[in-house]
Amino acid sequence: MKLPVEFLNKIIDTVEKDKDVKGWILTGKPFIFNVGADIMSVDPTATKEDLLKIGEMGHGTFKRIMNLKIPTLAAINGAAMGGGVEVGLYHNYRTISKSPGGCDHYALPECFLGLIPGWGGTQLVTKLCGPEAAIELIINNPLNMNKMINSIKAVEMGLADRLIAPAEFMDESIALLERIITGEEKIERKKELDRKRKRRKERNKLRAKGLLPSANEKKV
Hints:
Elements: H1 4-17, E1 24-26, E2 32-34, H2 48-66, E3 72-76, E4 79-81, H3 83-89, E5 93-97, E6 106-107, H4 121-129, H5 131-143, H6 151-157, E7 162-164, H7 169-182, H8 190-208
Parallel strand pairs: 1-3, 2-4, 3-5, 4-6, 5-7
Helix pairs in contact: 1-2, 3-4, 4-5
């Protein structure tokens, strides 16, 4: 059985060799970005070593995307679940199609099946959005009758950078990537903005106590 990651590896081979490629965008077929592995298609006689190989193959392929020397963008045009969520998280940037009619189902449902996300979701969500968001997405939602979130909630949690209407989704996603490549636009994430606000608040407290010069005070 050919796994999708095997085809993805071939595409990455081509991109790595072509110095004229300035950016990478990954999207899905209409209404579905990627819904992960089909559990029913897994060979019931597969050994532990067989399953470990599948896990290692996914990690290896997705890390190749992460290590590309060009900006990478996952254009999440529809449903994203399991490995589909994880492959998006390996990209530098993520756009997501607005609900309703876009990405109405976004989830890491593995805990509902007695599993854990196997391609890096536990670490990637935590690094991107913080532990609270990771617990909600990876543990609480699956154990709450396999609850899923939509694109609006995904952006609120920091899982995607831009929320775009379905009709303009691909055009706007490509345009965003072009602006990132040319340097016209820089993406600042919720977690980064929260850190900046926290540092600004701490500096203001120190200024109020006279421990730092005021913002308008010039250094001599």
